[in-house]
Design goal:
Oligomer: single chain
Order of helices and strands: EHEHEHEEHHEHEEEHHEEHEHEHEHH
Structural class: alpha/beta
Largest sheet: 9 strands, mixed
Distance between the termini: 42 Å
Number of strands: 14
Number of helices: 13
Shape: globular
Radius of gyration: 27 Å
Helix content: 40-55%
Strand order of the largest sheet: 9-8-10-7-11-6-12-13-14
Length: about 475
């Protein structure tokens, strides 16, 4: 009989009881903390139940999203691939990372919540069974290819299938050599770029001020241990990478302090244990004018980004050279036809509520015109934001996070599709090569035909590349 562990916040016990009743009524065994004995080691007990259960239902609510226990339980379930997340009374984008970027079922506070959870649990079980069946089918096909290849005459010229077989065994799961999702926020100085990135990160990590602050690109990535590095050019013109204390990052990366040092820094790299960075790298850019002394390095940093936000002031958006800079950014899509670009209108709280719709509508129209001029696919989204929060800026930031989540999902699909295409190309090349060898009489027609039939199921599977949402 299938077992389910239920994770929830104590203040949501009434919701939990609805779920427990529905799951037990569906014939499932439910483990939850109300069945624990007094004096038990709750931590070890919960970890053991999540490890042994077929599914873990996490009820995400405003209360549970702040619970250390629920977040820890959800992480364990995610690592075991048994997570069934249900959001009740909370937008998915407000969930703690990494759960805000995972598919989550929406529930309600009513009695139908039980039905929603039961369907989600059985749906996950069905999906898991289908995935296992697909993996078994793939493994059998790869084994058949290996059998045929191993039966070929040794030392066939130009035939090296061992690497292909190794990659086929991993299917489309490995894409470590592909670029990660990397976000750069660009624009002129004092447009709130670092402030926006700090809000995305969830803490004040990057330097901010009312005067031009960031002097060079700062790349921020995930690591369980905090560290910071500075790539500098020494007096002899040699580039070296130096460790610096993270708490002194401002001393080495801000315009006001940079003049005090004889070394010329090129780029700063920061590693911190912030969850969002497991899914997206961040590049904090100097203002357009401040970037001129390091224009080549800045251009390279922007060019490496797979996702860009252009920051401008909501009080006077896209003024002067900003329009041309945004147009140039959009036109770079020739080499990255699907690189998403968004526009953030910062300092929205400094505009009147009656102006909000007009500002966003006007900027969206101008952005659409620029996109059309340079042949950019689609219209970049426009977000009206404020560092102080409040309405409507919290809703706009939630919309920005949803956009980032969609970009992350699309990037993952693109990476998988890229791997699948590479594998498909190599399979077809192997097939064509063996056919050529058969025509030359080096291998038999029977061997070439056997390999062709063995490769066919893999070719059909790989040709079904996942769709990517461009919305």
């Amino acid at each position: 009989m299938e077992t389910v562990f239920l994770s929830y916040a104590r203040t949501d016990e009434s919701l939990a009881r609805v779920v427990v009743e529905a799951l037990t009524g569906a014939g499932l065994v439910v483990h939850w903390d109300r069945l624990f004995e007094p004096g038990e080691d709750f931590g070890s007990k919960i970890a053991g139940l999540i490890e042994s259960s077929d599914s873990t239902v996490v009820l995400w609510t405003p209360a549970s999203s702040e619970s250390i226990w629920v977040k820890a339980e959800a992480q364990l379930a995610l690592e075991r691939d048994v997570l069934v997340p249900i959001a009740v009374g909370i937008d998915q984008t407000a969930l703690p990372l990494p759960f805000s970027v995972l598919h989550t079922v929406s529930g309600t506070n009513g009695s139908e919540l039980g039905t929603v959870v039961v369907n989600a649990v059985f749906g996950r079980a069905t999906a898991a069974q289908e995935a296992a069946k697909s993996a078994k089918k793939w493994g059998a096909a790869v084994a058949e290819v290996a059998r045929v290849v191993n039966s070929l005459p040794p030392d066939v010229p130009g035939l090296s299938p061992s690497v292909l077989l190794r990659d086929l065994e991993s299917g489309d799961e490995e894409h470590s050599d592909d670029e990660p999702l990397r976000l750069a926020v660009v624009g002129e100085h004092n447009k709130g770029k670092s402030t926006l990135l700090n809000r995305i990160l969830g803490q004040d990590l990057l330097p901010t001020d009312t005067i031009p602050t960031t002097a060079l690109p700062i790349r921020v990535t995930y690591s369980p241990i905090e560290s910071a590095w500075l790539t500098v050019t020494d007096a002899s013109g040699v580039r070296v990478k130096l460790p610096v204390p993270l708490q002194l990052l401002d001393d080495y990366t801000t315009i006001s302090n940079l003049a005090e040092y004889s070394l010329e820094p090129q780029i700063a790299e920061v590693e911190v244990p912030i969850e969002v960075l497991k899914f997206i790298e961040i590049i904090d850019m100097p203002g357009v004018r401040e970037a001129l002394p390091r224009e080549e390095l800045v251009r390279g940093a922007v060019g490496s980004a797979t996702l860009v936000i252009f920051a401008t002031d909501a009080r006077s958006p896209l003024r002067g050279p900003e329009g041309a800079a945004l147009g140039s950014l959009l036109s770079s899509g020739d080499s990255r036809p699907h690189r998403p670009v968004g526009v953030s209108l910062m300092f929205g709280d400094a505009t009147g509520p009656a102006e909000h719709y007009e500002i966003v509508d006007s900027v969206t129209a101008r952005v659409a015109s620029l996109a059309e001029e340079v042949g950019y696919e689609g219209v970049p989204p426009v977000f009206l934001l404020s560092s102080r929060g409040g309405e409507p800026f919290d809703d706009e930031f939630a919309r920005l996070r949803r956009w980032l989540n969609q970009c992350a999902t699309n990037r993952e699909r693109e990476l998988r599709a890229s791997v699948r295409r590479r594998l498909l190309d190599r399979i077809m090349a192997l097939d064509a090569r063996l056919n050529g060898l058969a025509r030359e009489g080096i291998v038999s027609v029977e061997d070439a035909t056997s390999l062709h039939h063995a490769l066919l199921p893999l070719r059909l599977e790989l040709a079904q590349a996942p769709e990517v949402d461009r919305g």
